[in-house]
């Protein structure tokens, strides 16, 4: 995998997100949980395209700000009863730096 250094972990708010622009994939939201886990997915809800980076992070899910769809951060899969998926991306943290493979 090709890893790109995105930012320092502290640049992502706890229970929040940071958006990264990608020529190949469009906007990618990088999320940070309360347990300092980091996940990445398209910044677009599969329902109506809402900006997931502006949603509420709780546990390992994010709630879309438009219509309250919940998506699993690790896979991008919608939580039942909703159905759909947004693309997730590999992300890792080393020495406080966040790396993305997209």
Description:
The structure is a single chain. By secondary structure, this protein is mostly beta strands. It has strands spanning 4-8, 16-22, 26-32, 38-42, 56-58, 61-63, 70-72, 88-94, 97-101. The strands form two sheets. It has a six-stranded antiparallel beta sheet, with no helix packed on it. A three-stranded antiparallel beta sheet has the order 5-6-7, with no helix packed on it.
Keywords, separated by commas or semicolons:
six-stranded antiparallel beta sheet, mainly beta, 9 strands, three-stranded antiparallel beta sheet, Rieske Iron-sulfur Protein, 102 residues, 44% strand, single chain, globular
Low-confidence stretches: none
Strand arrangement within the widest β-sheet reads 1-9-8-4-3-2
Average pLDDT reading: 96
Continuous helix count: 0
List the quaternary state of the chains: single chain
Radius of gyration: 13 Å
Assign an overall shape.
globular
**Termini Cα gap:** 9 Å
How do the SSEs run, as a string of H and E?
EEEEEEEEE
**What is the CATH topology classification name?**
Rieske Iron-sulfur Protein
The fourth-level CATH homologous superfamily is Rieske [2Fe-2S] iron-sulphur domain
Secondary structure tally: strands: 9
In what range is the share of β-strand residues?
Answer: 35-45%
Number of domain units: 1
Largest sheet descriptor: 6 strands, antiparallel
Structural class: mainly beta
- Supply the CATH class: Mainly Beta
Q: What percent of the residues sit in helical stretches (DSSP H or I)? A: under 10%
Write the CATH architecture name.
3-layer Sandwich
